[in-house]
Structure formats: C-alpha cells, structure tokens
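Try this one yourself first.
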C-alpha cells in the first residue's frame, strides 16, 4: 500500500503529493496486535486539522487504531473514553485550550494514563531539552516526514 503525502507546517498546513510512504504489506496485514489481540492504539494530539488527518491516515493504513484529539483537553477525554487503553501518544506542544505541557502534567497525575509513553511533535529548536523535562519517550521535529514518523512510532509501539 502506498500513500503520497508531504505535510508542511507554517501558518497553514499543506498536503502535497510529493513524498511516498510505503507501508510494508506484512506490517499492514498483521494488524499490530496489542493486549488481548487488539490493535495497537496511538492517540494523536494535534491542533492542525490537516496534519491530524494526515498522521492518523498513515497510522491507520499501517495497522494502528488512531485516536484523534485537537488539544490536551480532548486528549484526556479520549483517554478516559477508552479507559486508558492506549499504547502511545503523539503530542503536539503548542495548542489552544490545553497545551502539551499542561496535558502531560495531567496525564502523569492520572494513574490510569501515567505510564502511556509520549512522543513529542513540535517545530521548536530545543526538543531534546523539552523531551527530557516532560519525561517523554522521544521527539520528532516538525515538519516531519511521514516515513520518519511511522518509523519512530513502530520503534515505540511495535
């Protein structure tokens, strides 16, 4: 299966048919089983609707169940609705309503969600420092190539 997308961030997000993401058929067919044979669940927290759609489409085509949230408050609601059944969180930092720092603090203070690993996504230059401060599993710098993002997700959520 192949998806052609390039996500570019700035004042607006653009999607261009320039970069191909090849999803290996073996990954897609096995369905990335999690606990009790269910698919692995990734929560994507991103305020840009085009980027959110592109990232979740890539994850779903790779066999993950992708949950969507436009800010930290929605992300906490998604986690509660799914009773904390989530294997990985992709977290933007700069969002309205509840930013990534506030979300991460509330996530760590909630026992049912505290152990879910978080990968940060941001355009900031100090991602390594912020990642350490927030005790994140890792970080990707925007703009992110979808093949790179998928490889990072697969490393943290096989």
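Now uncover the answer:
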């Amino acid at each position: 299966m192949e998806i052609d997308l390039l996500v570019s961030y700035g004042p607006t997000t653009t999607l261009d048919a320039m970069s191909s993401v090849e999803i290996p058929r073996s990954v897609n067919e096995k369905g990335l089983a999690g606990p009790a044979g269910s698919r692995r669940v990734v929560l994507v927290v991103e305020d840009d609707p085009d980027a959110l759609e592109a990232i979740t489409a890539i994850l779903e085509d790779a066999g993950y169940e992708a949950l969507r949230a436009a800010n930290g408050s929605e992300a906490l609601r998604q986690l509660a609705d799914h009773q904390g059944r989530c294997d990985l969180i992709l977290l933007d930092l700069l969002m309205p309503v509840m930013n990534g720092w506030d979300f991460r603090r509330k996530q760590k203070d909630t026992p049912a969600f505290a152990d879910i690993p978080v990968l940060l996504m941001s355009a900031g230059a100090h991602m390594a420092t912020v990642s350490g401060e927030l005790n994140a599993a890792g970080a990707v710098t925007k703009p992110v190539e979808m093949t790179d993002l998928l490889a990072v997700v697969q490393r943290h959520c096989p």
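Discussion: Residues 47 and 95 are 6 Å apart (CA to CA). The chain is about 35% helix and 25% strand.
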